[in-house]
């Protein structure tokens, strides 16, 4: 991944209103209230940015096609180098996240609504990575869609394949995801786990490699309306 130093010290130094005008002049569709931080730059053939989206200082996005919907937050020192990046409403990529690696025609990262990717994570979308609505990718997580170095002709294993993280999944810190994996909706993965195969929906999995520990009602409690009311009161008391 090469850092576009030249653009960062030229276009990147423009104030946010002039950057908006510059990208619009180049054909970008940019909504109202969009702001660009100091030394942040975009290199893309197609740019679509929705209302009230923010791109923080010292961040660069180098893609063929960029689509950021409404109220997206790309925080400072984020580096993106892939074919396509799509981020839906109210999602955030936090500080010092890197998205990049070997490029193929299929390389893309697709992020749904209300997703948060926490700092220091590395995502490698050589094959597609899809993160559905309401998922949380905790700090220092690693998501890889290929694993190869030694020669396949000499008998070494080589793996390429997409990763799909479904709705409401939660990864805490230092989860490592290998290629050809789907994590089912509302699954939770223990910190420090390595995911090498599919994880079923609504389950708790942990370990290296990750194994399912509990599923369904064994893991997720079902509250009555009265129990929910009591729970809300307890939460409000704690906030107070």
Description:
The model has no long low-confidence stretch (mean pLDDT 95). The radius of gyration is 20 Å and the shape is flat. The protein has three helices and 28 strands. An eight-stranded parallel beta sheet has the order 1-4-7-10-13-16-21-24, with helices on one face. An eight-stranded parallel beta sheet has the order 3-6-9-12-15-18-23-26, with no helix packed on it. Strands 2-5-8-11-14-17-22 form a seven-stranded parallel beta sheet. It is mainly beta. The longest helix has 15 residues, at 225-239. The protein starts with a helix and ends with a helix.
What characteristics describe this protein?
240 residues; 8-stranded parallel beta sheet; 3 helices
Strand order of the largest sheet: 1-4-7-10-13-16-21-24
How far apart are the termini? 47 Å
The quaternary organization reads as: single chain
Structural class: mainly beta
Largest sheet: 8 strands, parallel
Mean pLDDT: 95
Helical stretch count? 3
Q: Radius of gyration, rounded? A: 20 Å
The amount of helix comes to: 10-25%
- The low-pLDDT segments are none
Task: Tell the overall outline.
Answer: flat
Which strand-content bin applies to the residues? 25-35%
The number of strands is: 28
């Amino acid at each position: 991944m090469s850092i576009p130093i030249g653009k960062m010290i030229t276009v990147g130094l423009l104030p946010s209103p002039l950057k908006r005008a510059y990208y619009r002049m180049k054909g970008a569709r940019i909504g109202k209230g969009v702001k660009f931080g100091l030394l942040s730059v975009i290199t893309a053939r197609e740019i679509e940015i929705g209302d009230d989206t923010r791109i923080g200082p010292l961040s660069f996005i180098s893609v063929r096609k960029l689509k950021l919907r409404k109220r997206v937050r790309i925080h400072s020192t984020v580096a993106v180098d892939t074919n396509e990046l799509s981020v839906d409403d109210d999602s955030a990529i936090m500080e010092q996240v890197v998205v990049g690696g070997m490029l193929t025609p299929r390389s893309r990262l697709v992020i749904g609504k209300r997703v948060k990717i926490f700092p220091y994570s590395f995502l490698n979308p050589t094959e597609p990575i899809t993160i559905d609505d309401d998922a949380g990718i905790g700090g220092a997580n690693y998501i890889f869609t290929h694993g190869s170095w030694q020669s396949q002709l000499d008998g070494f294993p080589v793996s390429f394949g997409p990763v799909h993280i479904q709705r409401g999944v939660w990864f805490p810190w230092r989860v490592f995801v290998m290629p050809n994996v789907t994590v089912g909706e509302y699954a939770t993965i223990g910190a420090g786990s390595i995911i090498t195969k599919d994880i079923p929906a609504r389950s708790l999995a942990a370990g290296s490699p990750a194994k399912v520990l509990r599923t369904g009602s064994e893991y997720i409690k079902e509250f009555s309306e009265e129990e929910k009311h009591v729970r809300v009161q307890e939460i409000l008391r704690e906030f107070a």
